[in-house]
Each structure stands twice: as structure tokens, then as C-alpha cells.
Amino acid sequence: MSKLSEAFEGKKFVVTSEIGPPKGTNIEKCLKDAELLRDKVCAINVTDIQSAVMRIGSLAICHLLAEKGLEPVFQMVCRDRNRLALQSDLLSAWALGIRNVLCLTGDYTSLGDHPETKPVFDLDSVQLLKAVMTLNEGHDMSGNELDGTPNFFAGAVVTPGCDPIEPQIIKMKKKIDAGAKFFQTQAVFELKQFESFMNDVEKFQVPVMAGIVVLKSAGMAKFMNENVAGVFVPEGIIKEMAETKKEDRKKKAVEIAARIIREIKPICQGAHIMPLGWDALVPEIINQAEL
Which domain holds residue 179? Predict the structure, then answer.
């Protein structure tokens, strides 16, 4: 059974983080970063060809984590595989000891390092969730019976900072109907906006984990405000980063992330920490957040 599922069922405030597979075969650092999270987080997401930049696949790294006794969350994007490959990879993941899957549509290929790539998008994230649920029920998407059935704990993403928020809530309901059992959000920086969103979706009674992005600089914050839909870093936080000396930025990043987690803890079911390469900071963020 999924340990992540058990944690939510136990009404714990659940903390997860993530690692990014390398662009190449040197996986030692990736696995070392994951080891830093042992006994610190409930589960570790492994990104799937993040930002459309070619890397080792999430499936392989998730399997290695599972072998080491760490709880992986297999991220799957619809951009690169048709429904045959997606279903096949899901069955492979189950056979390799992976119990959690996060279903994503995926960034467009023009954003990555192979912009000439032909995207697939045979399914979207809602349809992928439905495919997971169908496999869990013992059939493939064409209705054929499986010889052995998985039991994935499936999750999805939502962006609580979108304006208007109504389309996000409508799609969230579709994802729940398609089988989503938990949600991770886009980066949260503004408490009141997030609290309003949580009040709106409380009726769904599905665990929501606030996305916590580790800020590296004021420039990064401004870039997200201008380019990442549904993300707003308040001016006060940007000023904090701008006034921090370069050598002290990691310390300030930990302080800000921990503070946000303490603020959102009473109103949601968990936090998903996205360190974006600063993986070594996650244990101290958890410590300062008093988790």
C-alpha cells in the first residue's frame, strides 16, 4: 500500500519534496539528494523530463528510490507518450514497486532543449487520471481485462493563484471524478489568496498540499510573477530577497519557505517543497517550519 496514502488517511500534515533526474547517466548526486530526505519527508517526487529538457526518465529513478526504501511519487506527463506507452509505463511502474503517480499534462516542447520535438498529447491530465483509475479497476482503456491489477494512489496538480479561479476549481472537480486522490499546488506565496482557495475547495474533501518553491533571488521572484501563470510573489518577499547579500540568500530562502509552511499549515493537508536544485536546504526548511 502507498505510504503517502496512509499518511493522509492518518490525518497527518504530510510533507513531500522532489528531485530532478540528471541529463546523463551520472545518477549519484540525484540519489544522494534523495537520501538527504530520508525520514524528513513522506515521499519524494521524481520529475518527468521537466521543462521539456531531455533527462533520465522518472520511472528509472523512482525504481531506484523504491529499492532503497524511499517512497517515490512517479510524475507522468502526457507530452511524450501516447496512451499505449503511458499505460505500459504505469504497469511497469507497479511491477517495479512504485505505488504513487502524479498525473500532469506537461510543458510544451518549445520550452525545452529539443524545440523541434513533435509533442504527443494523446491524453491530457484528466484522461491520464482516468486511465490510472481504469487500470486500478482491472482493465485497459479499450476495456480489455488485465492479467494482474495495480492499485495506484493517484494525484494531480492545481493552481490556486489563478484569476479567475473558477476554471481551476471546475477542472479540479473533473480530476477528482477521474480518480485524483490528492493534489499538489503551484507555488504558494500569498496566504490570503490560498486561504480563499482552500475555503472554495473544502467541499471536495480531497487532501491538498501547498506547493512551496524555494526562492533563489529577487530576480527569480520577478521572473515568476511575469512568466508563470497563477504565481504571485508579494513585493514584501521580493524586497526581502533583494536586500539579502548573495552569500546569505540560501539562509533567507530557508527562512521564507519555512515561514510560508507555518502559515499555511492550519489550512491545508500538507506541503510539497520544490527546491529547484537547492535540495540540501530541504531538511533545514522542515526543521525551521517546526514539522
Answer: 3-216+260-283
Q: Compute the distance between CA of residue 269 and CA of residue 137 in angstroms, rounded to an integer.
A: 27
For the domain that residue 15 is a member of, what is the CATH number? Answer: 3.20.20.220
Structural domains in the chain (count): 1
pLDDT at 182 over 90: yes
Q: Give the list of residues 6+ apart from residue 85 with CB closer than 8 angstroms, or none.
A: none
Judge if pTM exceeds 0.90. yes
Alpha carbons within 13 angstroms on the beta-carbon side of residue 181 total 18
Please give the C-alpha separations between residue 5 and each of 35, 126, 176, in angstroms, as whole numbers. 21, 20, 15
| 93 phi and psi angles, rounded to 5 deg | -60, -45
Residue 228 C-alpha cell reads as: 508563470
User: Helices (DSSP H) in 42-165: which residue ranges?
Assistant: 58-67, 83-95, 125-136
pLDDT for 33-90, tens place per residue? Answer: 999 999 999 999 999 999 999 999 999 999 999 999 999 999 999 999 999 999 999 9
What cell does 28 get?
549519484
Q: Tell the residue number behind the cell numbers 517512497, with chain if given.
A: 71
